[in-house]
Amino acid sequence: MIGIEHISTYLPAGRIENLSRLEQFGINDTFISDKIGMVQLAVKDKADDTSDLCVKAVNQLLIEKGEILSEIECLIVCTQNPDHYGLPHTSAIVHGKLDLPSNCACFDVSLGCSGYVYSLSIIRSFMEANGYKKGLLITADPYSKVIDMNDKNTSLLFGDAATVTLMSDQPKWQIGKCVFGTDGSRNEAIQVRASDRKFEMAGRAVLDFCANIVPDNIRETLALNNFQIGDIDKFILHQGSKFIVNMIIKRMDLDPAKVPFEASSYGNTVSSSIPMILANENDAQSLVLSGFGVGVSWGSVVLMRD
Fold it and tell me: 139 and 115 in contact (C-beta within 8 Å)?
């Protein structure tokens, strides 16, 4: 059975201070701290591309787990902001930079905020179908490549980061059944404009989607895995904003102590937001992961400590 053995993360040292931008957008510090929740945003070095963030996350994994690259049989990169507009695929570039074995399968997954949950299911299934024992799932979606810094709706939210999940047959976390969904009729709610390749988001449409779909998706996932809300030690939700996380807490009547919000010092890191938190989770025996966003797309899963 393939599951999660270890997670390592990389956060760039650079920061944007949102509290220094109050006058620019005509807002106050309460809006920053209580509504969006992002006091600082991590920003990559301008010289770094997506593959460089991936490699830095893997380098941290090697510090924590030792030299394992010769054992890696597959590599998946989840990103919607790849190197070279996606040609070649970023996972191939990372493969070359890491000098991975030639029998290592590599491909990208083009998903955003729901991408970690989707990619967990993909890499587990891929590895089990092919008899693989060790694989890497990397998330890296540096939105600083596409953010319009004059856009109040987006430029105060998103930060850069990368994570790598070591998948193996000696897991720390077993992966339960997932529940996924997509509403492509709302695809323009979160998009990059064709005119100038800058990111835009319809805030109200996103809030409505999160409020009306995500709680039911989590409930369905719990039922499919034969869990009740009270059985779950932690709910790790995509860190879209503090307001969104709190809204889901209220809609589901969750215990706020079980629903961490940890993105205040680095921002919404898209597909990295869930593993950024999961990497530091050492006590919980059962977890729900729920990602939701671009597409619009959503997915939730239960993890059980092995």
Answer: yes
